[in-house]
C-alpha cells in the first residue's frame, strides 16, 4: 500500500509539472527522481550500546573462526605425523 502511494505521489508531481510546462522529458525525470527519493532510506541513529553489541558479536565470530582454523591445522598436522610414522614403520618391516 505504501509503495503504491509513493508511486501515485511521484506520478502526480510529474503530471503537474507536465501540465505547467508541457515538457515531457523533464516530467519523466521528475517522476524518476521522486521515486528514487521516496524509496531511499534515511540515515538512522545507532545507539552506542547497539554498536558495542554488534562489535562484540563480530569479535566473537572472528575468534571462533580463528579457533576453528587453528583446530583444522592441528588436525592436519596430527594426521600428517601419523601418516609419516605409519610409512616409517612399514619401511622398517
Task: Give an overview in words.
There is one protein chain. The protein has helices at 2-21, 24-39, 48-92. It is mainly α. It folds into two domains: 1-44; 45-93. Helix 1 runs antiparallel to helix 2 (24-39). It is elongated. The mean pLDDT is 90. This is Integral membrane protein. Residues 71-93 are annotated as: Disordered.
Please name the defining characteristics of this protein.
single chain, 93 residues, mainly alpha, 2 domains, 3 helices, 87% helix, 0% strand, elongated, Integral membrane protein
The termini sit apart by 81 Å
Number of domains: 2
Biggest sheet statistics:
none
Instruction: Work out the strand percent.
Output: under 5%
Mean pLDDT: 90
For the secondary structure, the number of strands is 0
From the alpha carbons, calculate the radius of gyration and give it in angstroms: 32 Å
Q: How helix-rich are the residues, as a percent range? A: over 70%
Protein name: Integral membrane protein
Region (Disordered): 71-93
Organism: Helicobacter ibis
